Amino acid sequence: MLGNFQKTIQSSIQIKGVGLHSGAQVNLNLKPAEGNTGILFKRTDVDTEKSIVEANYKNVSSPILCTKIKNSHGISISTIEHLMAAFYGEGIDNVLVELDAPEVPIMDGSSFDFVESIRSVGTEEQKFKRKFIKVINKIEIKEGPKYISIEPLEKDLIIDFEIVYKNPLIRTRKHQFKLSKGDLTSIYNSRTFCLYEDIDQIMSMGLAKGGSLENAIVVQENKILNDSGLRHRHEFVDHKILDCLGDLMLSGHRIFGHIKTSQGGHQLTNTLLRKFFSDSSNWQYENFDGKQKEQDSKDSVYSSPAAVNA
Fold first, then answer.
1. Of 120, 265, 267, 115, whose CA–CA distance to 192 is shortest?
2. For residues 5 and 264, what is the distance between their CA atoms, to the nearest angstrom?
3. Phi/psi at 200 (nearest 5 deg)?
4. Which ranges constitute the DSSP H helices of the chain?
5. What is the pTM assigned to this prediction?
6. Please, what's the b/e burial string for 202-236 (b: 16 or more CB within 10 A of its CB; e: otherwise)?
7. What are the distances in angstroms from CA 290 to CA 89, 115, 162, 178?
8. Three-state DSSP state, 170
9. Which residues of the chain have a pLDDT value below 70?
10. In angstroms, rounded to a whole number, what is the distance separating the alpha carbons of residues 134 and 291?
11. β-sheet bridge partners, residue 163
12. For residue 65, which phi and psi values (nearest 5 degrees)?
């Protein structure tokens, strides 16, 4: 279980890779940040005065096939969900993410490389206490056959995820993630996937320019085209849980609650967060000592940016 105090990384991390949808080569630099900074993205290839984008659910735009955030100047960063999931699981609260392209590199299609890089430098505990979001009221969203809800749960996060595919190999699969169990290995290692017959349509949308069997599982009828097959039996649904964790990190704080979803995805999770936080009676701050004091204002779920160790 995550501790009571905020953390950042001990030193800078350099990562190189290709953008899944843009196909662009990306240089990614993770830098330590001071307490209460949160997760900030900075585009180094644009005007510096307009380059900062907060990792905030309110900044999500066009969450189709990935999570994309954009600031008021129109500067955007796409495919942030796997990196955000690594921050969630590894307990990183404050970090500056610099990149010289409009998309986080896809790496192998999972969070594995990001997690290994964070672990290689270690984390640093900071003097500020974490705030957790405690769910007070159940909120649910229904969009045809798609469904997602969040309800109260004491000092833990559970995600019950169901995927439903007509494909004979994927079919209907369910799995539950419980944060307090501590082992996120199977979640971290689960890669993004797609159906072979969908590739032409995805590419016609100008997406997946950097996609390959090196960074995605491709399923054609009842077989997997990747030579190595699946990494584990729950990889399909566990990747959806990975995406969900990354998108939940956009709340600005980790959530204590029980999420149930069928056929969910980036857009549905973002819709849930917007509805949930639209009414302050749905939640309150707390830490492991109990409810936060009243001076911890709920005016903004996401902390205001503080100084960053550039």
1. 265
2. 31
3. -60, -40
4. 81-90, 112-121, 185-188, 199-204, 235-248, 266-277
5. 0.93
6. beeeebbebbeeebbbbbeeeebebeeebbeebbb
7. 22, 30, 32, 21
8. coil
9. 1, 289-310
10. 9
11. 173
12. 65, 0
The full set of domains in the chain, from first to last, is 5-130 (3.30.230.20), 133-291 (3.30.1700.10)
SS (H, E, C) 202-225: HHHCCCCCCCCCCCCEEEECCEEC
Greatest pairwise CA separation for the chain in angstroms? 57
CA angle 46, 303, 308 (to 5 degrees): 50
Return the HEC string of 89-116: HHCCCCEEEEECCCECCCCCCCCHHHHH
Query: Can you tell me which residue has the tokens 């007070």?
Result: 136
SS3 content of the chain, % helix, strand, coil (to 5): 25, 35, 45
CB atoms under 10 Å from CB of 151, counted, come to 15
Q: In angstroms, rounded to a whole number, what is the distance separating the alpha carbons of residues 200 and 37? A: 41
List, in sequence order, the alpha helices (H) in 54-204.
Answer: 81-90, 112-121, 185-188, 199-204
Q: How far is CA 30 from CA 38, 142, 293, in A?
A: 13, 37, 32
Q: β-strand 146-151 against 255-262: which pairing, if any?
A: antiparallel
Place of tokens 């986080």: 104
pLDDT at 49: 81
Give the CA count within 13 Å in the CB-facing half-sphere of 135.
25
Specify the 3-state DSSP secondary structure of 1.
Answer: coil
The set of catalytic residues is: 266
Note the Cα 104 to chain centre separation in Å. 12
**Cα angle: 276, vertex 282, 285; to 5 degrees:** 105
86-119 pLDDT tens trace: 999 999 999 999 999 999 999 999 999 999 999 9
Instruction: Give residue 294's pLDDT.
Output: 42
The set of residues, in sequence order, having a beta carbon less than 8 Å from that of 209 and lying 6+ positions away, is 19, 21, 22, 23, 203
